[in-house]
Each structure stands twice: as structure tokens, then as C-alpha cells.
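This section describes the prediction task in plain terms. A model, or a person checking by hand, is given the sequence of a single protein chain and must write out its three-dimensional structure as a string of C-alpha cells. No templates, partner chains or ligands are provided. The sample shown here is typical of the held-out split.
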Amino acid sequence: MRYRLVPGPGCPSDLCERLNAALSTPCARRVFHAAKSAYRAGKDHFQERFLAYLTDKQKLPAGELEAILERASLDFRQAMLLPVMFDMTARCEPVS
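The expected answer:
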């Protein structure tokens, strides 16, 4: 099943749509969901250390999160703090 991100309170819908477009593969969705779930807003995460954690501890593909951020034109902190919700009930049309 493919899900969509939906904008939460205060989330610009264009940023949410850019991120949805960047999550075009099951691997990308899995990596972003894991990153978003592991990220803690109050903690001072360093991008390199956080990416190493995702790769080493979570066994997620190296470089996938950076590719997602590049496709969405977002930086790491902006993407992690973006107030989006995961709509797991939605079925999306494939991104072309």
C-alpha cells in the first residue's frame, strides 16, 4: 500500500506536495518514515550522525535520505521538522 503525507497544522501544502513527489519509491517512503519516526525535535541531531544511525542501526540504504531531500529541495532539518502526517489509508496514483 502506498500512503501520502498530508499537511499538518501550519504546514505549507506546496512543501508537503514536493515531499510526496520525492517519495516515489517504496524504499524512499520506508526511509523517510523511519527517519521522521526516529527524529526528536528537542534533540540536537547532526545530519551526518543521524544518517549514520539510519544506515548502521536501522539498516536502511545509505544515501537514500539525501536523495529524497535533494528531489524535494528541502534541507535535513526542514524536512524533519515539517509538520506532516502519514495518511496510511490513502491510495495514491503512481508518480510519473
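For orientation: Residues 26-38 form the longest helix (13 residues).
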